[in-house]
Each structure stands twice: as C-alpha cells, then as structure tokens.
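Possible regression after last week's pipeline update?

I re-ran a chain I had predicted before the update to compare outputs. Posting the input and the new output here so someone can diff against the archived version. Not blocking, just want to make sure nothing changed silently.
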Amino acid sequence: MPAPVRILAPFDSVLLSHADRSRVIDDEHRRVLFTVNGIVKPALLVDGEVAGHVAVSVGRAGAVAEVTGFRPLAKRVLSEVEAEARRLLEFAHPGLDHDVRICWSRPHIAADTP
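New output (post-update):
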C-alpha cells in the first residue's frame, strides 16, 4: 500500500529510533539530513522513504516552506508535496500568507512515472 507524502519534524523518531535506518533513508541522504553539529532537518517522505528536506522561514511577507528534493519525483507527487507543505504552514503559522518553493539538490526534470 502506498504511503502518503509526509513532512517529518526535526529530530523525528522515525529517523532517530532505529539502529538500521536503511529502509527509510540511504547513507548519502542521511549525511545531508543529519548535520555535523547534531541537527536533524525536517524530512520529506515520499512512499515511506526520505526524498528531501524542508526549511520553514517566517518574514514580513508571510511563511515560506522550501522543499529540497533529493531525487526526481513524478509530476503527480509534486502536487502532494505542495499540499503537505501548505498544511504544515497553516498549522504552524495560521493567518499568514503561505508560499511553497520546491527545488532540487541535483538538476533533473520531473518524471511522468515514479
């Protein structure tokens, strides 16, 4: 059964509580998500696997969720990512204007299939 797109909080137990995290994140991406000074960035899950990270910022113009993907995502998944980021912003910063920006850590063109 496919898992919905989700954004995990910083230091989420999905990423911290298992000795073997290879089911949800590979070593290359773990090094990006877990910083050298002990910070664990908010993670983007697609089909139950880490597919990127998220940074939320708040300014005079409103709240922004910047989603950085690690791998190509199907076009249909991009709308799910945006919807999940908007839900996060509405929960965390209700009443502000919200913007979602999706970028990629590696250049690619979104695929039509997963």
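Follow-up from reviewer: compared with the archived run. The chain is about 25% helix and 30% strand. Marking as no regression found.
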